[in-house]
Specification:
This protein is mostly helical and 419 residues long. The protein is built from 20 helices and no strands. The chain starts with a helix and ends with a helix.
């Protein structure tokens, strides 16, 4: 069974636990969910998983190549005993600690990791908010495992275990847990990690074990109310922009820097560092925690229902894709990745008010018509192409604001779409 299929099987458990947390919050009059934020967070998780079909090949391919070439202790018998599995898990968690720390202390790694921190809410849906670009450079931190001789299969399993463990710690409803907090990553420890409070900044990186933070000096205990998000708020429900935002800022600063050294340093200095000349010419407002406001554009009831229904349908599409992705030809998998990405982008656009419902449907049906045509799915294409034309006609009528009967241009445009 592939990692993608395991995630599909785990998805109902994720949603059951999210429902339990939501119900608990409502019962205690301390709800920590907003529909738009939760949809955005889970959409980013869905996008991360569908893109991982391609980036996983990159990461696992490199790991396997290094393991095959230079592994010092490639003893499968050892690594598949209980103590070998345990050692591999602890080894992975240590490597993850340093990757996670780099994700907060080196700008190019922060550009990937920032996605997980953009939500201003802290709940189990935040746990599913994952990057789509982290694997491109993150593999570097797991090279020691390949060199040591941890088999690729063992590496893949312990990586999944480490990731799944971290789901439950994203909640405000579990308070401090005494001795457990001293050894393991817990909800209290991880709330600190997600906070933008000055005293909490860049702390508590451990994935399963928090002892790494105690050993390497990055631990901080929760002792004041956490404020969540990032110091430069995303203020968008666009999943593509969420992944690209910091890369774009770094690219701009690198372009504007006059020194060639600064053009390179921008990418490897801590997040927020800027060349002096760039900071003078393009000043950025300082962070003020007292001025933090939740991004929450108004949503009419129709938009709420549309977003929820569309999200549910896209979730089914992502699950179906992940279940068969490893057996699909690469080109066909890329087509469906494109269609699902367009759908997730369109839902974010509607929730944010950048698109209306008709425009979102037009974009989605056009994407499905294109993909079914390219994939040779003739019967489905015969469904989606006419639907695209119908929605396009409806969109033209809406845009004409009642003048379409008297406007020759609009009449010709509608006739062209219809025939």
């Amino acid at each position: 069974m592939s990692p993608s299929q395991i995630i599909v099987l785990a998805t109902p458990v994720f949603f059951l636990l999210i429902a339990v947390e939501l119900a608990w919050g409502w019962a205690r009059k301390r709800n920590t969910y907003r529909l738009n934020d939760a949809i955005n967070s889970i959409s980013l998780g869905m996008l991360s998983q569908v893109s991982a079909v391609f980036t996983r090949l990159f990461r696992v391919g490199i790991y396997t190549a290094i393991y095959s070439s230079v592994a010092l202790f490639p003893d499968n018998t050892f690594w598949t005993q209980w103590y070998g599995w345990l050692l591999a898990l602890v080894f992975y968690d240590l490597c993850y600690y340093w990757l996670h720390r780099a994700g907060h202390e080196v700008a190019v790694f922060w550009a990937a990791h920032v996605v997980h921190h953009q939500s201003q809410d802290y709940n189990l849906s935040t746990a599913l908010r994952q990057t789509s670009s982290g694997a491109l450079l993150g593999w570097v931190f797991y090279v020691p495992m390949a060199v040591a001789g941890v088999p690729p299969l063992v590496f893949g399993v312990v990586a999944l275990v480490d990731l799944l463990y971290q789901f439950w710690v994203h909640t405000e409803h579990v308070k401090k847990l005494g001795w457990f907090d001293r050894w393991f990553c817990s909800p209290s420890n991880h709330r600190v990690h997600h906070a933008v409070n000055e005293r909490y900044l860049d702390r508590n990186y451990g994935g399963i074990l928090i002892i790494w933070d105690r050993i390497f000096g990055s631990f901080k205990e929760e002792d004041e109310k956490c404020v969540y998000g990032t110091r430069k708020p995303l203020n968008s429900w666009d999943p593509l922009w969420a992944n690209a935002e910091v890369y774009w800022v770094l690219l701009q600063d690198s372009w504007h820097a006059r020194s060639w050294g600064d053009k390179l340093r921008v990418w490897f200095k801590p997040p927020g560092w800027r060349p002096a000349d760039v900071a003078v010419r393009f000043p950025a407002a300082p962070f003020d925690i007292e001025a933090v406001q939740a991004f929450h554009p108004p949503m009419p009831r129709a938009v709420m229902w549309f977003g929820a229904v569309q999200f549910f349908l896209l979730l089914q599409g992502v699950a179906a894709f992940l279940w068969v992705a490893d057996s699909l030809p690469l080109a066909q998998a890329a087509l469906w990745l494109g269609a699902l990405t367009v759908g997730l982008w369109a839902v974010g656009g509607v929730l944010q008010g950048r698109l209306n419902i008709t425009e979102a449907l037009l974009i989605e049906f056009a994407a499905l018509a294109t993909v079914t045509s390219a994939a040779g799915l003739v019967d489905l294409h015969r469904v989606f192409k006419p639907l695209t034309m119908v929605i396009a006609i409806l969109w033209v009528v809406q845009r004409s604001e009642g003048t379409w009967l008297s406007s020759r241009f609009h009449r010709l445009l509608i006739a062209g779409l219809a025939f």
